[in-house]
Design goal:
mainly alpha; two-stranded parallel ribbon; 20 helices; elongated
């Protein structure tokens, strides 16, 4: 049995190398399921051998060579060797002595190309959205099925089935292991960005469960986003999404209190915001803004930047934020965007102005059970002194959220309205 320190070291190597390892193996086997299987076999071999032999100088190259040998064995047993065996054999001979290239400098070599191909393959539109998220976290984030299930509060067998079906679908549909060119790449890139956006958002504001945030999901989405930004530096919206995630992630330490309770944006201690992440986010935003017209991720990053540049909540430029939400709504019409615009207008011009925008949204059937609509409504009513109505709105929001921490916050705000009106002592 490996020592705890050795085990942690191997896990760290795996987290760093696994995505590139599976990507390279998928290139030579053309089968993402087989690639993941033999990569896992190589990890098991490392756990067995490295405690006795010591960590190899180039752990990534060791894992790649071990996995490729296992791929040959697998293909031989399945009588599917023929041309694939020759390809893998030639690849081993030419590459087994080479070091795995550094990720940042891999723009023009197989490793970088393979990783980008794997991202596009895992996020192919032929897969349902839930399957894309699960497969991306598995292949690119290195998360186990158990970790993914825990993160999204879904039974582990459900996640396992999604991943199995996703890999089977990719094989049956013969989805090519490639980065599509030209118009096809432009068509499929939004699917890749959407998956990263969904993963990050679930980590940033969990839809259900007992935790307000799941930082590990944010970290994984941001890590993959950074990789993508280096591999396709000409894509403005990739930089826009990375900028958004960097800036949002900078608030992590300030968003949760000592007891795990949520701390809303205007109440956060901004000295706890991570200034390094903010600088990185602003730099990514600058790269995105060099290539107008601005897309939805770049506009959202610009909104986040308005908050990041304000050293105190009072210094926030709410008029600019409201204008950015208006532009965003014109690009991607959505009642959620309109809800956010109403909040910005209320902050800029007063709660009555925000409430005027909110009236139409309260009639929108798609938002009827959206807890944040009722939370915002309650906030506007409270500021206008309509405490009884505000309390009802907060209580309604509490019944609709599936997140325990958020429910506690809504009930607390409802109680505050009751206390102010004399209903609760």
């Amino acid at each position: 049995m490996p020592s705890a320190d050795t085990h942690r070291a191997i896990e760290a190597v795996w987290r760093i190398e696994s995505a590139g390892l599976i990507a390279g193996l998928t290139r030579v086997t053309r089968d993402v399921g087989l690639a993941e299987e033999v990569a896992q076999d190589a990890l098991v071999a490392a756990l067995e051998q490295w405690p006795q032999t010591g960590m190899p100088e180039n752990a990534g190259a060791w894992l790649m060579a071990a996995a490729k040998n296992r791929a040959i064995d697998q293909l031989r047993r399945k009588k599917r060797l023929t041309q694939k065996q020759d390809e893998i054999g030639r690849d081993i001979e030419s590459r087994q002595e080479q070091a795995m290239p550094d990720l940042v400098t891999a723009l023009d070599d197989d490793f970088g190309d393979d990783l980008l191909r794997l991202i596009f393959m895992a996020c192919h539109p032929v897969l349902p959205r839930e399957a894309r998220v699960a497969l991306t976290l598995r292949l690119l984030g290195g998360l186990t099925t158990t970790e993914i299930a825990r993160a999204f509060l879904v039974p582990e067998p459900t996640i396992a089935q999604r991943i199995v079906r996703a890999k089977r679908t990719l094989a049956e549909k013969q989805v090519p292991f490639e980065v599509p060119a030209g118009a096809q790449r432009a068509e499929r890139l939004p699917s890749v960005l959407e998956v990263l956006y969904l993963i990050f958002n679930e980590g940033y504001a969990a839809t259900a469960g007992g935790d307000w945030m799941r930082p590990a999901l944010c970290e994984e989405a941001l890590r993959v986003g950074r990789i993508l930004a280096e591999l396709v530096p000409q894509e403005a919206e990739v930089h826009g999404l990375v900028a958004l995630m960097e800036i949002q992630a900078s608030r992590t330490a300030a968003r949760v209190g000592p007891g795990g309770e949520p701390i809303l944006l205007l109440e956060q201690n901004r000295t706890r915001w991570d200034r390094l992440l903010i600088r990185r986010g602003l730099a990514a935003l600058e790269r995105a803004e060099r290539q107008p017209p601005y897309g939805p991720y770049t506009l959202q990053a610009a909104i986040a930047a308005c908050h990041a540049r304000a050293l105190t909540a009072d210094q926030t430029n709410w008029h600019e934020i409201a204008q950015l939400y208006e532009l965003l709504g014109q690009q991607t019409p959505s009642p959620i965007i309109e809800l956010n615009r109403a909040v910005a207008v209320a902050m800029a011009d007063g709660p009555a102005a925000g409430l005027a925008l909110l009236e139409a949204l309260l009639q929108d059937e798609s938002l009827r059970d959206y807890h944040l609509l009722h939370s915002v409504y309650g906030d506007f009513l409270k500021k206008l002194g309509r405490l009884s109505e505000a309390r009802e709105a907060f209580e309604r929001a509490a019944t609709l959220t599936q997140n325990a921490r958020e429910r506690e916050l809504m009930l607390k705000r409802a109680q505050e309205c009751g206390s102010e009106s004399g209903a609760i002592s």
